[in-house]
Amino acid sequence: MWLGTLLLERRSDDIYCMKGLLSFEGMSERFVLLHVHSFYEKLETNIPLGLSMEQGVHDIFQGSPDRPWGPEESRINKIVFIGKNLDAETLEKGFKACLL
């Protein structure tokens, strides 16, 4: 819930990319997250007929089970954010509140 609220409501334009590796209770596979946010601006051009590129936003958010955790592998929960104006302390606090 925290991650959905973060990406969809609060900071979506400031988070360019997010990758995560999660361990869920009762799941033997690693869970992989990926979020990519792209923003395109309108570009004025000198193309005949008044053609121009329009502004657009494209978001990819996906998560899926990956390979099983190895018997000697430490099960971890880690998310990496790439963006601007991100408050590392707030992100870390929100993420840690989700962990059991």
From TrEMBL:
CobW C-terminal domain boundaries: 8-99
GO cellular component: cytoplasm
Molecular functions (GO terms): nucleotide binding
Keywords: Chaperone, Nucleotide-binding
Record has Ribosomal protein as a keyword: no
PANTHER family: COBW DOMAIN-CONTAINING PROTEIN (PTHR13748:SF62), COBW-RELATED (PTHR13748)
Name the UniProt record assigns to this protein: Plastid transcriptionally active
Organism encoding this protein: Thalictrum thalictroides (Rue-anemone)
Organism ancestry: Eukaryota, Viridiplantae, Streptophyta, Embryophyta, Tracheophyta
